[in-house]
Design a protein that fits this description.
With 215 residues, the chain is of the alpha+beta class. The chain folds into 2 domains: 4-87 and 127-212, no CATH class; 88-126, no CATH class. 24% of the residues lie in helices and 24% in strands. The chain is built from 5 helices and 10 strands, in the order αβαβββααβββαβββ. Strands 5, 6, 7, 8, 9 and 10 form a 6-stranded antiparallel beta sheet that branches. A 4-stranded mixed beta sheet has the order 1-2-4-3. The longest helix is centred in the first third of the chain and has 15 residues, at 4-18. Mean pLDDT is 88; it is low at 210-215.
């Protein structure tokens, strides 16, 4: 559950922003899962709904490193996780001593690139072998005099399977990968009663109130 004091304080800030801006976006970082890793914790849904009630035009979640569902609550989109848009930690130039303590080598004796190769089992463990950690989505919201009239979804790939110096950089997904990402997002959005429709040029869109959002 949300801490009531925190929730009320954030809600007051959002309500204040509503009176000082044309568009209000609320960003929230949360790793915690619900019944499955792809579902957000119930507290996050309660938080998102409260923020929309206070005037947020959209709530944008991130944290679990992979995509989660999309909900339209009172006509405003809630993205429960957009995954990783940039993932370049393997190219870090310095590693904290406490992280070096997790491997056998002493701090300073192993270059950062070799350090990151150790926990990942040289691409066999953690994030490296899983395609979903290398996929994301860039939503483009269109407003008309403060009313949301369109949500275009642009699938993004981060170079799954490519060499370390090339992966982790966002680029528009190719046709086949874009189709897979949009199908996955449509599946994740369905439990919330939200419809994702594939569009032209490898992008997709949300249907607002059962109508194509960009027509």
């Amino acid at each position: 559950m949300c801490d009531r004091t925190d929730l009320d304080e954030i809600a007051r800030r959002v309500a204040e922003a509503r009176g000082r801006a044309d568009v209000v976006l609320v960003s929230v970082h949360s790793h915690e899962p619900g019944p499955t890793p792809e579902e957000p914790g119930e507290f996050l849904r309660a938080f998102a709904h409260r923020m929309v009630d206070e005037g947020a035009d959209a709530v944008v979640g991130h944290g679990p490193h992979f995509l989660r569902g999309i909900e339209l609550y009172r006509g405003r989109p809630v993205f429960y996780s957009l995954g990783n848009i940039v993932s370049r930690i393997e190219l870090a130039e310095r590693v904290p001593a406490e992280d070096y303590a997790n491997i056998a080598a002493a701090p300073g004796t192993v270059a950062p690139g070799r350090y990151f190769a150790e926990p990942s089992g040289h691409g066999r463990r953690l994030f490296a072998p899983h395609r979903r950690y290398r996929r994301s989505l860039v939503p483009v919201l269109t407003f008309d005099d403060g009313t949301l009239v369109g949500v275009r979804l642009h699938p993004v790939g981060l170079g799954f399977g490519e060499p370390v110096h090339r992966r982790g950089r966002p680029r528009l997904a190719g046709p086949a990968e874009a189709e897979e990402i949009l199908a996955d997002v449509a599946r994740l959005a369905e439990p919330y009663g939200t419809t994702v429709k594939a569009g032209d040029g490898g992008s997709g869109e949300l249907l607002l109130d059962g109508v194509d959002s960009l027509t």
